[in-house]
Amino acid sequence: xxxxxxxxxxxxxxxxxxxxxxxxxxxxxxxxxxxxxxxxxxxxxxxxxxxxxxxxxxxxxxxxxxxxxxxxxxxxxxxxxxxxxxxxxxxxxxxxxxxxxxxxxxxxxxxxxxxxxxxxxxxxxxxxxxxxxxxxxxxxxxxxxxxxxxxxxxxxxxxxxxxxxxxxxxxxxxxxxxxxxxxxxxxxxxxxxxxxxxxxxxxxxxxxxxxxxxxxxxxxxxxxxxxxxxxxxxxxxxxxxxxxxxxxxxxxxxxxxxxxxxxxxxxxxxxxxxxxxxxxxxxxxxxxxxxxxxxxxxxxxxxxxxxxxxxxxxxxxxxxxxxxxxxxxxxxxxxxxxxxxxxxxxxxxxxxxxxxxxxxxxxxxxxxxxxxxxxxxxxxxxxxxxxxxxxxxxxxxxxxxxxxxxxxxxxxxxxxxxxxxxxxxxxxxxxxx
Length: 433
Known about the structure:
The chain is of the alpha+beta class. 39% of the residues lie in helices and 22% in strands. Residues 363-383 are annotated as: Disordered.
């Protein structure tokens, strides 16, 4: 039976790297992603710089501060991390349909049947790294292990960290296993490692030399078989493909203010900020929406919703904001606002042309021209409207490219400035139903 070609893609300091990519002020700093911004939390993920000063995953914050008093703490944001994971899966799908996310920051790819179209396994790994850099940023790096099965590929991904590539084969495994710690192997926890050391088995080389009967006596059939498969390179579990290519039906963003407000500038700026997040997300998914809704909840907990549909898809933040702002004015909100949510629905692929978005016969979101005006005048107005739309779309793409390189909110519209005056929590959602 021919060996398979399995890749294990494992991000380096994933949560911290995502935060550093999103925020330029965190780059090259000792950063700890935490479960809570206080001394009571733990370090969920240290940055590469934090690891260099001895800070480790799972370390209490107070101990991390003792090691490096100026550590920058960032509360974990799984909306960001899940988004990066989804973008990664799209890239992996260019090389194979056999993809198994192993956790939020790692995945197995079976490229046995498709590798021949891209060259060597190393070429595939390099191409994936290049695609990831272009799509999710240069600071979010990964290490890629190549092996004939999942276990060996996962071991290989640990060897040249960070940002490395290593191919583990049956020819070099004996030499490599001399350097591999027992706990570096997925499936060997601290308790199993301690029991192995009690048997004077201190690394994979020792394990390979151990008689199966001894392993069976001490660990039972199942674990003994697992350990033997690891060291012999005979592990054969398949890559469990998942269906992640579903097309979303709706998506949105929402913000809970830390204190209620009636300030229309702040409310307007908050809606604008949410709109830009939504528009950028639509463009990431290469989708446009033909429906928008705005939900406002006041300090009493009472909510009101307004929605509008239109015939042509939109992904421009400026145009979406114009529609949402009109919806907000139409609600005549008099109470202090505590919660704002926006949702894009009736999504369609962005591959459809935007030409004709402002044509009179299909335009229901803009006032229709006076019927007495001649065809030439209407045509001229439609042309001007289309030029305005094209400029807004070009500006949106420019903002995307700058923020992708330099981090979220590096550049934004002036109308969002007042949003910073009221703090709160922003979250996102997506529906496939």
